[in-house]
Write a structure and sequence with these properties.
- The protein is an alpha+beta fold.
- It folds into two domains: 230 residues, Rossmann fold (3-Layer(aba) Sandwich); 89 residues, Beta Barrel (OB fold (Dihydrolipoamide Acetyltransferase, E2P)).
- It has ten helices and 18 strands.
- A six-stranded mixed sheet has the order 6-7-8-3-9-10, with helices on both faces.
- Helix 2 packs across helix 3, helix 2 packs parallel to helix 4 and helix 3 packs across helix 4.
- It is globular, with a radius of gyration of 24 Å.
- The structure holds adenosine-5'-diphosphate and magnesium ion (MG).
- The site of magnesium ion (MG) has 2 residues, from helix 1.
Length: 329
């Protein structure tokens, strides 16, 4: 449905995207994930037609859209800042694109009413000034304004990052349901790995203008393709040489382990000291010192929740679940 073919973007000599190759399937919820400055917004804006690539091509439905004006690409975009018109009502904001397209008043009304209901805006809110709404409600308006044009592709650039944590989780659930319901192919940008794992069918992890890995949330987490991905997604410990020796782990290169694969046996394993623990309800995240360096362990046991800082414990790791990376060639 969407294809980035060696898309390279340079800003005055600075390379923001290094030749991006990416395919996004019809109906997919696809996320570009990476730290600030890695090129996520650049990729999105290039697809939307706001930035012309230095080289490479973009395809939508097998059609080369690289030189096509933005408004003819069938793309709806939602910005982090919402970019609403503050002096207009909610209805006027949502209807804006329809008015530009000279849609008749009656149909305009009908389409705004329908899309407002889809995104969870109450009819009474439509006639209010958009500036009177809360951040969460403004976000719904921004999404409605994009959807009302019935785009075949929806682009969302960090749409939830200005909201508080609880609202963010609520809205992401709503967004996921809405996307499934409409079946609109969605390209989502975030630096929040938890959000990406929760929302996406597939994720591309970006670092410094390059793709580190493309995969399902489970693949990205459980089979992280590089130390960068391993470190960026969730929690993980890179084991030091002394730790590997104490834990009886052989091999060369980097060895990483996720906290849920670090266990606290009654005997055996390596000696550890509890340095920190964070009770999280369903589990406890422990920072343990083993052979002079930290290891993170997640445990659902009551015994783990009861461990005290400074106390002794034993640590063993699931050798089958280690993430290993060969020495650089
Ligand atoms: P992200 O959205 O992942 O935070 P961006 O795509 O915004 O990253 O930016 C990628 C890189 O390009 C960054 O180093 C950023 O500073 C740079 N950049 C972005 N926009 C411009 C611009 N208009 N002019 C020059 N450099 C830019
Ligand atoms: Mg950005």
């Amino acid at each position: 449905m969407i294809r980035f073919d060696s898309v390279r973007v340079e800003y005055e000599g600075h390379v923001a995207l290094e030749g991006l190759d990416l395919e996004i399937r019809e109906g997919e919820f696809f996320t570009l994930l990476g730290p600030s400055g890695c090129g996520k917004s650049t990729a999105l804006r290039t697809l939307a037609g706001f930035i012309e690539p230095t080289s490479g091509s973009l395809f939508v439905d097998e059609r080369d859209v690289t030189r096509l004006p933005s408004e003819r690409r069938g793309i709806g975009m939602v910005f982090q800042s919402y970019a609403l018109f503050p002096s207009m009502s909610v209805r006027e904001n949502i209807a804006f694109g329809l008015r530009v397209r000279r849609l008749a008043g009656g149909e305009r009304r009908e389409r705004v009413d329908r899309v407002a209901a889809q995104v969870g805006l109450a009819p009474a809110q439509l006639e209010r000034g958009v500036a009177e709404l809360s951040g969460g409600q403004q976000q719904r308006v921004a999404i409605a304004r994009a959807l009302v044009l019935e785009p075949s592709i929806l682009l969302l650039d960090e749409p939830l990052s200005n909201l508080d944590a609880k609202l963010r989780v609520q809205l992401r659930g709503e967004l996921q349901r809405l996307q499934r319901e409409l079946g609109v192919t969605t390209l989502y940008v975030t630096h929040d790995q938890e959000e990406a794992l929760a929302l996406s069918d597939r994720i591309a992890v970006l670092s410094e203008g390059r793709i580190e890995q493309v995969g399902t949330p489970q693949e990205i987490y459980e089979e992280s393709a590089s130390p960068f991905v391993c470190d960026f997604i969730g929690e993980a410990t890179k084991l030091t040489e002394p730790q590997l020796r104490e834990l009886g782990i052989g091999g060369s290169g980097e060895t990483w382990v996720r906290p849920e694969h670090v266990h606290l046996p009654d005997d055996g394993g390596a000696a550890a000291v509890v340095r920190a623990h964070a009770y999280r309800g369903a589990s406890t995240l422990l920072e343990l010192e083993v052979a002079g360096a930290p290891i993170f362990a997640a445990s659902a046991s009551r015994a783990a929740a009861a461990l005290e800082i400074g106390g002794a414990a034993r640590v063993a790791v699931d050798q089958g679940a280690l993430l290993r990376y060969g020495p650089p060639a």
